[in-house]
Amino acid sequence: MKAQIKETYLASGFNSWEMNTAMISAIIIIDLILKLDNNYFKIFSPLRFKDKEVKDNLDKHNKNH
User: Is residue 43 part of a domain?
Assistant: First the structure.
C-alpha cells in the first residue's frame, strides 16, 4: 500500500526578512491546515504577483495537485 500525500506546504525565499517571514509563514501554514481564516494569506500569496506567466504557471500547478 502506497502512502498518499494530500496536502504539501512549502515556505521559502525569506532573504533578509528571515525571522519575520518565517514566523508568518508558519502561522499561515498552521491556519491552512486547520482551515482557519488568516489575514496574512492574501498579503503573502504567490497569486499577488501581477505577472501573467507566473500566475498561469501557479494555476496550472494547483489544478494538477
Answer: yes
Please write the tens of the pLDDT for every residue from 35-65.
999 988 888 877 776 667 777 777 787 777 6
Grid cell of 24 as nine digits: 508568518
- Count: domains in the chain: 1
Q: What is the 3-state secondary structure (H, E, C) of the chain?
A: CCCCCCCCCCCCCCHHHHHHHHHHHHHHHHHHHCCCCCCHHHHHCHHHCCCHHHHHHHHHHHHHC
Q: How far apart are CA 48 and CA 31, in angstroms?
A: 19
Which residue, among 37, 48, 43, 49, has the nearest Cα to 20 in the 3D structure? 43
Asked whether the whole model's pTM tops 0.70, one would answer no
Q: Provide the residue range defining the domain that includes 35.
A: 15-64
